[in-house]
Amino acid sequence: MLGWFKKKFGKKQEEQKGPVQAEESVAAKAVSEVGEERPESGPQTPPEPVDVSAPPTPAGEPLPEKEAVEAESAEPGKEQEPAAEEALVKTGPSATRPDTGEQEKPVRKSMFQRLQERLSKTRETLASRLDTLFLGKKQIDEELLDELEEILITADLGVRTTQELLDAARTRVKRDQLSDPQALKEVLREKIYEYLQASDQPAELVMPESGPFVIMVVGVNGVGKTTSIGKIAAKFVRSGQSVLLVAGDTFRAAAIDQLKIWGDRVGVDVVARDPGSDPSSVVYEGLEYGVANDIDVIIIDTAGRLHTSVNLMEELKKIRRVIGKKMAGAPHEVMLVLDATTGQNSISQARMFSEAVGVTGLTLTKLDGTAKGGIVANICRELGIPVRFIGIGEQIDDLRDFDAREFVDALFNREPDETRQS
Ligand SMILES: Nc1nc2c(ncn2[C@@H]2O[C@H](COP(=O)(O)OP(=O)(O)OP(=O)(O)O)[C@@H](O)[C@H]2O)c(=O)[nH]1
Question: Which residue windows does the record flag with biased composition (Basic and acidic residues) (predicted)?
Answer without folding.
Answer: 63-81
